[in-house]
Amino acid sequence: MMKGVRIRPAALAALLLLVSGSAPALSTLDFGAPRALFAQAMAQAARAPGGTVAATEPAADANDDPVLRAYPLYPYLQAERIRQAFSSDPADADRRATGFLVTYGLLPVGIQLRRSWLESLAQRAQWELFLNVFRDTGATEGLRCQSLNARIALGQTAQLGPTLAKQWLSVKETPECDPAYAWGVDHGIITADLFERRARLALQAGNTGLARKLVAHLPDAEGAPLLQWAALLETPQRTIDTLLAAPTTPVLNEALLAGWARMARQNPDDAVDRYPRLLQTRNLSSELASPFALAVALPLAWRRDAHAEDYFARVATHDLDDTALEWRARAAMWAGNWPLVAQSIAALSESDRQTARWRYWLARASDQVGDTTQAHRLFSALAPDDNYYSGLAAARLGVGVIPHPQPLPRDPAVLERLAQVPALVRSHELLLCDLRGQAVAEWQFAYDDLTPVERQQAVPLAMEWGWYDLAVPVATSLKIFNDYTMLYPQPYESSVTAAARAAQLPVTLIYSVIRQESLFRADVVSSAGARGLMQLELSTAKPTAKALRLPAPRVGDLFDPQLNSTLGAEHLHMLLDKVNGQLPLALAAYNAGIAAANRWLPAESIAPDVWVENIPYNETRNYVQRILWHTVVYGWLRSDGQAQDTTSWLTPIRALGDAQARLDQN
Known about the structure:
By secondary structure, the protein is mainly α. It is globular, with a radius of gyration of 30 Å.
């Protein structure tokens, strides 16, 4: 037994019973002590470069404390030791991995070890054993490529052609595939036709670098149109100008449209200036010009340009999909063309038209054209929806918002049964050991085999564990939205309350931002490097701390809930001050940055719902809308069910005046 960890006799007896198969309910076991042993042993295994006894000797397992060996996560320790041994004693590690997979090969821990073992075998060119171990299900792209290399190395190439060709037509560049591809070229499997097909796929995906490599293998006649396509994507304005100056130069229509759309996104004015010449020099009929007009209309709408309507009018009906119609409606509402808003909504697909978003905007359009009876009926019908648009509808009706909770009934028997599912036990323990990736794998492994009723009950189980960032998305996937007591938790109460008080902001607002930013996970890191509860980047945290006369934080400091919520709340306060207290604008700036929010400032006051609806970034628009709704739910929860006032949502978004200058300075 490891020094410093004491095991109560009762716990030891329970764990030994677990091994023997006569264990009591897992939910009654106290895993605290073996968890500590496990953490120590895992740390030791990870530190060992493969040379210590604990990592490599078969006797190490026998020498482990019985309590540790009875712990549900013990196989993860065994797997880690085997993984470390691949580099120090590969022959012995191969033997141990073989035995391990016999027992655990179908479990997440076995699947994970299998991947590590296959990577080691490929590195060592142990191809025969590799193929014996390889399973296509769950394999990475790299391992699939290595399986092709293994078959080639062993001469098992019968019927390899179709598999190799299918892999080749992936535009993902996987270095492990290069040897197999070279073999395929040498043996006439990867032909010029396949080179051309993959190059086209790469261009459609915007991967011009790969396309150019592939085109190098084609004859000039076949490659020239594809190189022109690449040039249209890389330097659209220059290449389009060259084509406009040489009307007889042939060009693939798909390539021209791709380059034109990219130029329009980069600078819509360039497209507007060139549109008449495009039609003239390329002899485009109104039908052929339609997709080119749409490529101009969309970026004009994104920047709220008055010319957007003109270009939407040039688009053929069959080119107006739901996305295009939605942006035509947004451009029309920005311009005050409410009949066109209604017309665009009417043309949407049934499923899109019946969403709360477009039911609300149909009501707004009805109101604007004077059909107040229709508008009142539509606004009233939105009230039970419980979302941002229902909050807006309530404000326009002049009534408070009372959410409509639909608590998920708890089934104690099912919850108890779930608590004893071995994979869920392992998932919870992995979560407690900060092994989140493995915890998710075990959760999914268990979840896949649950009945619909059990899946629903798994949500409150995960919430009880404090695993909010998993439970809320699972609830959403099951269409469980309105169990507000469960899905709107309030952890870190003292830190959040103190942060809100210091920033002079409502606690409900700070909780709403945290829920949207991190789902209460204090250690989360975004792809952009934002960290912690309120997802702060260091470049934001440092000046905010300076403004509060706090020490400059380091990266690791942002994982502290108290500091993160303090700095996040103050940052939001500072944004609100810069935009004269306009919450939708401040939230947009919090999500997309001040520079983006600056671009979206209206030239003159505008209805707030119109401004929010025309935020060009889908993520930011949804972010603002969801946080505003979260404030309603948290306000309702924290006020013991009092109706919430959303009339502030109707306060016009104003031109900022001196606030504009302050934004420009940042």
